[in-house]
Specification:
alpha+beta, OB fold (Dihydrolipoamide Acetyltransferase, E2P), 2 domains, 30% helix, elongated, aminoacyl-trna synthetase, NA-bd_OB_tRNA, ATP-binding, EC 6.1.1.22, ATP binding
């Protein structure tokens, strides 16, 4: 019976055939241990010389790393294995022999591994990270579908900047200027006015010349937008969503988290509600911790976010940032117009900002004033202004950065490991 490694538990003590690759092996004179992978998981295949034909055993001893094979054997329990099963092999069929696979079990430098990313993805660690990523995506769809959100796909090519920045990739769109999207948010606001609660999931691009472990040039965002929802309610939805993701990863990625050496107890602690502090309180806390360089009205850098996060065991919301350092569309606090109704969610353990969100301006006059202050093109943003002209309502939304969340849940150091083919400042290959 043909099956996959992930399904072998359904065939205990039965003979199965699996199409797979050889990840590694070791052998003695009478037994060979094959570390096999098929994309769904990893399993050990045991080939005993006395139990198989001589040609099968010789193939088991000579087969090279990453050669592809059909392996036939009996599924048995193995309590010593984290996976819990192994394969007692009785037949091997070579499909393709790999020669001189460049990534060996020895240590390799990061640049070498990045140059061979197309092959590095096959390793057990990278497999585990991608499975965590997949679970976050799956659970995101489940959360939003369960809460009556509709998925809407915003365009990737746009004629304007979502946040009015200059960190955009420019392209020529026939006879006019265009940019790769840095956020789908503005379009999601239009969708929310049509469908109430919506979310998008897609690639975004920032031409930011940053080399930190938290930054990618191309990354994926989950961006919900909600009509008739104000700031505090949006924060509650955000913490419920992140808690849902954490539980899904803990429940469904136990083997992968074990492979990564992740402290699962820290992930189990990610439960709503999350602590909240204002920007004013954050500045005061930082100054008390010796960050004399930070002044009111300045944005926080990675060291500031990390210092604040270290004060809490859960993610922490920093709310009510100064208007002058936030995007033009954020609604001012009615009690203090110098700050806006916004929040960044800072992950613990030094992983930085995971979510940025705000209540959006819903007043037409105020939005026109913001256009003037930020020197926004009336033509490019006319459609966005009209959302405040025809049936405007209070609304809010947020964006979760997928790769930073994967890094946090996986416990990996750098976001370059959290996306299949990372685009970095000096890397466009492979």
């Amino acid at each position: 019976m043909k099956t996959t490694i992930s399904k072998v538990s359904e065939h205990l003590n039965e003979e199965v055939t699996i199409g797979c690759w050889l990840a590694n092996k070791r052998s003695s004179g009478k037994i060979a241990f094959l570390q096999l992978r098929d994309g769904t998981g990893f399993i050990q295949g045991v080939v005993v010389k006395a139990a198989v034909d001589e040609e099968v055993f010789q193939l088991a001893k000579s087969i090279t790393q990453e050669s592809s094979v059909y392996v036939t054997g009996t599924v048995v329990e193995d309590t010593r294995s984290p996976f819990g099963y192994e394969l007692q092999v009785n037949q091997l069929e070579l499909i393709h022999e790999a020669v001189d696979f460049p990534i060996t079990p020895k240590e390799h430098g990061t640049e070498f591994l990045m140059d061979h990313r197309h092959l590095w993805l096959r390793s057990k660690r990278q497999h585990a990270v991608m499975k965590v990523r997949n679970e976050i995506i799956r659970a995101s769809y489940e959360f939003f579908n369960n809460n009556d959100f509709i998925k809407i796909d915003p365009p990737i090519l746009t004629g304007s900047a979502a946040e009015g920045t200059t960190e955009l990739f420019h392209t020529q769109y026939f006879d006019e200027e265009a940019y790769l999207s840095q956020s789908g948010q503005l379009y999601m606001e239009a969708a929310a006015m049509a469908f109430g609660k919506v979310f998008s999931f897609g690639p975004t691009f920032r031409a930011e010349k940053s080399k930190t472990r938290r930054h990618l040039i191309e990354f994926w965002m989950i961006e919900p937008e909600m009509a008739f929802v104000e700031h505090d309610e949006s924060l509650e939805i955000q913490e419920q969503y992140v808690s849902y993701l954490a539980k899904a990863v803990v429940d469904n990625c136990q083997l992968e988290l074990d492979t990564l050496g992740r402290d699962v107890e820290k992930l189990k602690n990610i439960t709503a509600p999350f602590p909240r502090i204002t920007y004013d309180e954050a500045v005061k806390l930082l100054q008390e911790k010796g960050f004399d360089d930070i002044k009111w009205g300045e944005d926080f850098g990675s060291p500031h976010e990390t210092a604040i996060a270290e004060m809490y065991e859960k993610p922490v919301f920093i709310t009510h940032y100064p208007k002058n350092i936030k995007a033009f569309y954020m609604k001012p606090d009615p009690t203090n117009e110098d700050v806006v109704l916004c929040a960044d969610l800072i992950a613990p353990e030094g992983y930085g900002e995971i979510i940025g969100g705000s209540q959006r301006i819903d007043d037409l006059t105020l939005m026109q004033q913001r256009y003037d202050e930020h020197k926004l093109s009336g033509d490019a943003y006319l459609w966005y202004l009209e959302l405040r002209k025809y049936g405007s309502v209070p609304h809010a939304g947020f964006g979760l950065g997928l790769e930073r969340t994967v890094a946090w849940f996986s416990g990996v150091e750098h976001v370059r490991e959290t996306i299949p083919f990372p685009r970095l400042l000096n890397r466009l290959y492979p």
